[in-house]
């Protein structure tokens, strides 16, 4: 009986470890700004967008107002900023799971610069 339990445990452990591992998206540095004001995208008001490989996508999972005043001198409507993001393109939009605005040199830390969403 003891051998049967050991065999069942080994079989269960090997089956669990053989499950397909989901590949985690890697962080990437992108240009982030207001899609309408900076990237000349068609839209209805100011909305956060990112430029990846020369193509612009509106962002789902965080908003333009989650990262400071969009209309400030260094805000998304006035400047294109760098951000480290994790996510994927779905239906021609970028679904972000992590968004970290990179501070401009000499500007120090920003308030509300990190957003991390758990994947569903």
Task: Describe the structure concisely.
By secondary structure, the chain is of the alpha+beta class.
What is the topological layout?
Blueprint: H1 2-17, E1 28-34, E2 48-52, E3 55-60, E4 81-90, E5 93-101, E6 114-116
Can you walk me through this structure?
This protein has 120 residues and is α+β, with helices and mostly antiparallel strands. It has one domain (29-116). The chain contains 1 helix and 6 strands. The protein has one helix at 2-17; strands at residues 28-34, 48-52, 55-60, 81-90, 93-101, 114-116. Strands 1-2-3-5-4 form a 5-stranded mixed barrel. The longest helix has 16 residues, at 2-17.
Descriptors:
five-stranded mixed β-barrel; about 120 residues; alpha+beta; 1 helix; single chain
Sequence of secondary-structure elements? HEEEEEE
The total count of helices amounts to 1
Strand order of the largest sheet: 1-2-3-5-4
Structural class: alpha+beta
Summarize the main sheet. Answer: 5 strands, mixed, barrel
Tally of strands: 6
Counted up, domains total 1
The overall pLDDT, averaged over residues, is 83
Which outline best applies?
elongated
Low-confidence stretches: none
